[in-house]
Amino acid sequence: MESFRQDMRFAIRALGKSPAFTTIAILTLALGIGANTAIFSVINAVLLRDLPVQNPQELVVLSDPEATGMMNGVSSGERNLFSFHEFEGLRDQNTAFSGLFATHSNALPVPISLSSSEQGSPTPVLLVSGGYFSILGVEPIEGRTFGSEVDTGLDAHPIAVVSYSFWQRRMQGAADAVGRQLHIRQRVFDIVGVLPPNFTGVKVGESPDAFIPLTMASALYPGRNILQWNAGSATKTLFLHVFGRMKPGEAIAEANASINVTYKQILSYEAGTIADAEQRHDILDAFIKTKDARHGVSTVRGQYTQPLDVLMGLVGLLLLLACANVANLLLARATGRNREMAVRVALGAGRRRLIQQLVTESMLVAILGGAVGLLLARWGDALLLRMVSSGPTTLPLDVKPDLIVLSFAVLATLITGILFGLAPAVRATRVDLNHVLRGASRSISDGEDANARLPMGKVLVAAQVAISLVLIVTAGLFVRSLKNLTSTSLGYDPEQMLIFRVFPSTAGYRGAALTPLVQDLARRFATIPGVRGVTLSENGLFLGRESADQISVIGQAKKPGQDMDATWDEVGPNYFSTIGIPILMGRDVNEHDSSGAHNCWVNETFAKYYFGDSNPIGKQIRDEYPETIYACEIQGVVADAKYNSVKEKTPRRFYTPYFNPIEQAGDVTYEIRFSGSGSAVSGAIRDTIRQTNGNIDPPNIVTIPLQMDVQLLRDRLTARLSTFFGAIALLLACIGLYGVVSYNVARRTSEMGVRMALGAQRSSILAMVLRESLMVTLIGAAVGLGASIAATRVLQSMLFGLNARDPLTMAGATIVLVLVAAIAAGIPALRASRVDPMVALRYE
User: Fold this and answer.
1) pLDDT above 80 (res 420)
2) Distance of CA 247 to the CA centre of its chain
3) Contact at 8 Å (CB) between 71 and 238?
4) Which of 252, 522, 543, 711 is 20 to 30 A removed from 479 (C-alpha atoms)?
5) Is the dihedral of CA 374, 312, 307, 782 positive or negative?
6) Using one digit for the tens of pLDDT, what is the confidence trace for 588-632?
7) Using CA atoms, how far apart are residues 743 and 456, in angstroms rounded to an integer?
8) Phi, psi at residue 108, to the nearest 5°?
9) Are 718 and 478 in contact (CB under 8 A)?
10) If you ran DSSP here, which 8-state letter would residue 82 be given?
11) What are φ and ψ of residue 410, in 5° steps?
12) Alpha-carbon gap, residue 336 to 505, rounded angstroms
């Protein structure tokens, strides 16, 4: 410890005498450590952190942790989500777990106010079963939660538990929060409790503000009974995640086998009420696959796991690059301390003692770099959350440093200090006492073997070039992939078009009353100044909704192996002309299609798959879903288009009239073409809906470019960050090359003076220095190119319209790197060519 204290004091003095070196080294390491810590903090929040509940290791999920949304119909195979009646059966017949609870797969934004006179604002609300809080072991900080008493009696328990964030943000932390009321549309809920600040639910990346009983689902879905299942019907609403808590000492495999026995009994009863044999088979084909849920469920996890892994690999390479850069600085600095090391050895210092002192200096630099890096990581985490958030509200991820993150930062700092400090320390302690102490450190002969004195420096520069090339190639691939995505044709013009969904059921419109309202709103929207066209559909474009069924072609036998699945939507008059989807054959939808014979339209992919080169106009197809069998005659063929994603493969698709539908829609999506100000038209649309009926929820009006931006968040994140890391890598590599060349030029000043005194031209000196520098660069580039070809194979699934070994990207990255490296080496080379021979020889 005494030696350590001495070394630390000496290290502080030594670093203080070289402020430029110290500052550059600390900032270089801070960048590498900070970037690694920032990315790891997000990985920890998304993938590694346990839920803040009692014994999270005992939690399992029976549904797909990445599933979200809602589905109506039959689902076979591994069950993604469950219906309410399935959950009730599992809960009531459960022998596998100590408890089961269910939650809606996602929180719904609904208008909430704190008084009847206040206008409601969209607030995320989560439906949960009675066992939610007790099984998780979550205790409120104010009031109480609710339990199994709320699982019976539909609409009988209008109570709510609010989050700590809602309590502070909307209620200003009021002491009388418990007992006050929440107004959700026309329903009033009593607040019974406030949750602790560290609990935001079991879904990572989601933070509900209010939790209400599952049996109060009608408050969020007015006019629909999503909890009901009728015997004999295959239609059920799948929307629930189901969680269980393991019994002590029980294995997941045993619990999974037991719960599947229970589930098969539920399905057997259900299938026994179904007449259709194919539907019975699909129902009985479903099964449960139990998974560890200690980290909760998340759609963010599936979306960002691979990009975060890739970014973690990139920042790891960046940290290696920073280590190589600082190691080069230490090598140059250590060579300048030869006389000091020789004197210490002459006075009896052992080599091990000298290495200990030098490693202490490097560890001090690493610790300072790590401290600054932690500060940069906090800023970087906030930036990352803004980059991955799909709107003005930041994604609710807790990225504050915890024990795991701090441990990672400390470990990264220690490894970094050893990586860049040990080799230069060993190199610096290899001193020739006779050579150094006789005062020959600046002789011509010393200059002549300067190249031999820094072989490690050149190796490090070549390694920096290689690592930089991998990062630049990766950045180039992601940038080009993003360009391909943003330039992909949708099959129509997405600009100057507003899309929004209206939910008439929130104001009590259903059945026969729905059609007049939908038509009246369309007529009113058409009169708004700036509106050029109005149409409507059930699912809309780029809103994440889709319908699909098995179909048949009337009068045409199914071919062996032919897939009869097709997607569909219900659309209003002038749909294709308003959207801008070209009509290849036939006509557009018109007012006459709203009654009488059933008509339909198909896309080009549908027509080619089922009819080949023959004309499909006048032929008939039938939707074969047993509860909504629908035969229609094809009136037109339209061009293929993108419906929900830029990356989607064009499906076989058909369209039916909204007002003469396959099944009665409960809501409607309007597509409006406009000119002029989109915000003015949007405001007029909201005013029109409010004037028509103030109880209809205000719509969320979006554009397709905005929805595409949300979809491409992951691609933008990886492209931006990889480009940033690539630029930093290029800068560090050039700094390293510049430093080594400058040092060699300084060491060889006498040699160059002699060469010029003997007749060497300045151009030959310049060429000599550049040739040696570019040789190191080219070697590093060759190694980096091979590493890029090997490493980028893992990126293929993240690229769009591009091969991971794209030769243009690799060639471009190599040329950029070599050119920039040539400039970095050219500056000291030019300085070398301007050496005055008399000044250089004076030192001899």
Assistant:
1) no
2) 35
3) yes
4) 543
5) positive
6) 999 999 888 999 999 999 999 999 999 999 999 999 887 788 999
7) 13
8) -105, 130
9) yes
10) B
11) -65, -45
12) 80
Distance of alpha carbon 782 from alpha carbon 466, whole angstroms? 7
Structure token pair of residue 548:
């699909």
3-class secondary structure, 373: helix
d(CA 188, CA 764): 88
Token representation of residue 352: 């091990």
**pLDDT tens digits along 157-188:** 999 999 999 999 999 999 999 999 999 988 99
Tokens of 226: 């999503």
Beta-ladder partners of 648: none
The torsion defined by the Cα of 216, 548, 697 and 532, in degrees rounded to 10, comes to: 180
**Long-range Cβ contacts of 370-373 (<8 Å, 24+ apart):** 370/29, 370/30, 370/33, 370/409, 370/410, 370/412, 370/413, 370/416, 372/26, 372/27, 372/30, 372/34, 373/29, 373/30, 373/31, 373/32, 373/33, 373/34, 373/35, 373/36, 373/37, 373/409, 373/413
- What is Dmax (Cα atoms) for the chain? 109
Q: Rounded to an integer, what distance in angstroms lies between the CA atom of residue 251 and that of residue 200?
A: 28
Residue 193: helix, strand or coil by DSSP? Answer: strand
Buried b (16+ CB within 10 A) or exposed e, 338-355: beebbebbeeeeeeeebb
Amino acid letter, 153: G
The tokens for 630 are 């629908």
- From first CA to last CA, the distance across the chain in angstroms is 45
Exposed/middle/buried for 253, CB within 10 Å: 0-12, 13-18, 19+?
Answer: exposed
Q: Check: pTM over 0.90? Answer yes or no.
A: no
Compute the distance between CA of residue 269 and CA of residue 265 in angstroms, rounded to an integer: 6
**H or E stretch including 191?**
strand 187-194
- Taking phi over 0 as left and psi of -120 to 50 as alpha, with beta for the rest, 117 belongs to alpha
Round to whole Å and give the CA distance between 237 and 83.
5
pLDDT of residue 443: 46
CA-only gyration radius of the chain, Å: 34
